[in-house]
Fold:
Amino acid sequence: MNIQPKDFEFISELIRKESAIVLESGKEYLVESRLSPIASEEGFDSLEQLVTALRGNKKFGLKGKVVEALTTNETSFYRDIEPFEMMRTQLIPELLEMRKAEKALTVWCGAASTGQELYSLAMMIREHFPELLSWKLTILGTDLSKEVLDKAKEGKYSQVEINRGLPAQLLIKYFEKQGTEWQLKKDVRDMIEYRELNLIKPWIGVPQSDIVLLRNVLIYFDAEVKKEILGKVRRVLRPDGFLFLGAAETTLNLDENYARRTSGRGSCYTIKKD
Amino acid sequence: MKAMIVDDSGATRFILSKMMSELGYDVVQAKDGQDAFDKLGDNKDCTIALVDWNMPVMNGYDLVCKVRAENEYNDIKIMMVTTETEMTQVVKAIEAGANEYIMKPFTKEMILDKMKLLGVPFEE
Ligand SMILES: C[S@@+](CC[C@H](N)C(=O)[O-])C[C@H]1O[C@@H](n2cnc3c(N)ncnc32)[C@H](O)[C@@H]1O
Structure:
């Protein structure tokens, strides 16, 4: 199905308002390929009809579906590996020392997608820092899209997803085969709570965190939104905590209150002390 | 850098060879486990071997066992690339000394992800 310029404009305005994701012209193909299945499913013959329904705002849940369809949920286990190496070799050992009196550690991932990122961390904790399991360990994953969160909660992955970045040793230890899919064992799934949260809406229930993961999501937003979100992160990141962004993302020229800390090829951000 | 590719399918050997040479490797090909074991003697400097499971003459699992019985090949990383997708098979291969496991069909990204996990060098 083809999209008319005025309808594309409407869609990109809607997406920007609802999710802050910027869809520049040239992304018509993306809108066509992601929305055509929804149009058919909802019984429309064209994208024009779908947009008309959206404009009328009469069909319950349609807007949410459209927004979800236009998010990019690509992720993988141990994506980019370096952030995980940095957490394993430096940051978590440091936090174990820094928090040894309170015995509490909190991690928040604000673009959790289908869960591979936090499950990678959860497996790493079980492998290398089992003492944390007796702490008050809070791991929260949030995302705008309900669909990806449902999958994250289930912790069930296809062979293709399993092939991407998951060490065979961990597959053996922490997964069970279910038909053609692989599901994480319950004790790993139970380490994480997943819930819906739109980064451009109020951050209700986001805890004060020692580690904030916000990888590969700012990239979809414009500079103003990036600035606003980085500012809000400073309010939920503990003063001595660590923020991770994606490999193509930075705080540079957006928020001067962060200092970059590097280790090998990995890097994270801390809040500058005055 | 040298990689050995062990698969009885010429097409698979071709694709894997292409991927590995793009990642900066010289490739040695073998068409079954026995062929690979024979060629390994002259190629002790292999960094990594990509090994299929089901092959005539000697299968990939037996190759892993045979290679791991010899100390001189300890530094070679072995990655199974196979259509075997049962947990029991993954466990069997890893216990025998394979370092990684990919279930066919594979992509270059998957191979690269695993190489990063194994800490073996590559060119991008
Ligand atoms: C490319 S994935 C990144 C997943 C993971 N963090 C990683 O790096 O592999 C981007 C995720 O951001 C989510 N997202 C996009 N806009 C969002 C918003 N405004 N609020 C919350 N999540 C959003 C999408 O639903 C998607 O799951």
About this structure: The CA atoms of residues 45 and 135 of chain A lie 55 Å apart. Strands of chain A lie at 104-109, 136-143, 156-157, 175-178, 181-184, 192-196, 209-214, 237-245, 258-263, 266-271. Residues A 19-21, 71-75, 79, 111, 113, 117, 143-145, 148, 198-200, 215-217, 220, 246 surround S-adenosylmethionine (CB under 6 Å).
